[in-house]
């Protein structure tokens, strides 16, 4: 219902809208310091979302607490505080992490034993930093007195981080209580509620029982205790997402906050007014257009509800509310001017070996491209994604892959088509377009894409493809440099979106091992209700160059995953 003003009979809603537009136009034309004050004061207006994007919250933001550029050294087991920033020796010292898991405990990751999950986490920590050492053992060793048990117990009592998972045995609980007093960081999940969590030497406890930390409050009211509570919440939220990447992330957050800086988290710190000044100085029209566009404004508000490290949340916001205004905003603020001053790098690890032979012959660049093109020509798509390892990008339903050669000589393109369930509970189709260049070695490729105004660059590897093209495994490393996001992942593909048959499982597990991925890490893609996908490739595009896909016998590997 529109309410009219009794004096001039104009709709009040329209008056307010024009007043807000006039205010923002005046602000954008005003001297920069006046605009900064305006943005800071008008916290109830839509433009407040802009200040949030720049990290200017009215209270200390979680992202600055969890990922600050400096940290407070905590006392070691001898009660001596060491400064990692001022000591070259400590900056390269080994970080000692010990994980104790309940004997026979099972994780929610497809029923995999917790001990296996954390042993794999220990391996993945080495990809971040070779000096991150994590020892994993069952709490049964706490009741033993052999040499291995004694060594493990000593390591736990003198560790930098003690991670307790699914420990409820009272004997084990008593041992941990007695021997963790000098450990500065103790984090307990799915364990006895009598165990005390510590971060940076400060005890924190949950108000209610739960599988994670729960709602935390410090046992002290000091500012440091409040910051510790914020870090605890970050760790709790990450753990609750129940995937292997976030389990590793929990450990990295604690290392970064209380032991020494973690390189992969350096891009996640707010820059404050420096960021805002850059945005206003260079991107005034794009900011205004974004704030006046409902979808773009919703995207900014949505992004500011996400942790900067929660790629699932961030990408879902973007995919839900993408619009030309959002693309123009991101292109100016991030890609052209890098106002957030970020510089994410493509991860170097794990190093994944490419496929070298196909059907008994050495793999060439041309044949590798044909493997990407896959079933396109016989079907309306190259491949359908069965499952993926990256929770941010591989979990969307109904994923189709289109690989093809362009009209220009040597050009090659990749277009993924996928569904997104928006935050408004609508199912929409999205499509991206990647330029693909051959790597130096056959079966390796360099991808680049402009995604909502931000360029992402990725390095892809064809790890394996079965001789009959009934399935394939592709691995990727990538980074959106100016967005501060680095990532890795892998996609398992087949012609119909169904999982490979049991007879192929041994070969599939071997291919996953080359990527440093366990089968239980994969997210199954929902391939039901996929009608109406916007497929098709440009006229004049070319497909295979080395073999005729129609000469292969196509057969269904089973029912599509629903």
CATH fold-type name of the largest domain: Lipocalin
Number of helices: 17
The portion of residues assigned to helices is: 25-40%
Major pleated sheet: 8 strands, antiparallel, barrel
CATH top-level class of the largest domain: Mainly Beta
Tally of separate domains: 3
- Tally of extended strands? 19
Write the layout of secondary structure elements.
Layout: H1 12-29, H2 32-41, H3 48-53, H4 62-66, H5 88-91, E1 95-101, H6 114-128, E2 132-138, H7 147-157, E3 161-165, H8 170-179, E4 185-189, E5 197-199, E6 202-206, E7 216-218, H9 223-240, H10 244-258, H11 273-282, H12 284-292, H13 294-303, H14 311-321, H15 324-336, E8 357-358, E9 361-362, H16 365-373, E10 383-388, E11 400-405, E12 412-421, E13 427-431, E14 434-438, E15 444-451, E16 454-465, E17 472-480, E18 485-494, H17 505-514, E19 523-524
Helix pairs in contact: 1-12, 2-11, 6-10, 9-10, 12-15, 13-14
What does this structure look like?
Residues 277-525 form the VDE lipocalin domain. Pfam families: VDE. With 562 residues, the chain is an alpha+beta fold. It folds into 3 domains: 95-206 and 223-265, Rossmann fold, CATH 3.40.50; 273-336; 357-551, Lipocalin (Beta Barrel), CATH 2.40.128.20. The chain has 17 helices and 19 strands. It has an 8-stranded antiparallel β-barrel with strand order 10-11-12-14-15-16-17-18, surrounded by 4 helices. The chain has a 4-stranded parallel sheet with strand order 2-1-3-4, sandwiched between helices. Strand 17 (472-480) and strand 18 (485-494) form a beta hairpin. Helix 1 (12-29) runs antiparallel to helix 12 (284-292) and helix 2 (32-41) packs across helix 11 (273-282). The two termini are 43 Å apart. 43% of the residues are buried. The model is unreliable at 1-91, 207-212, 214-220 and 554-562 (pLDDT under 50).
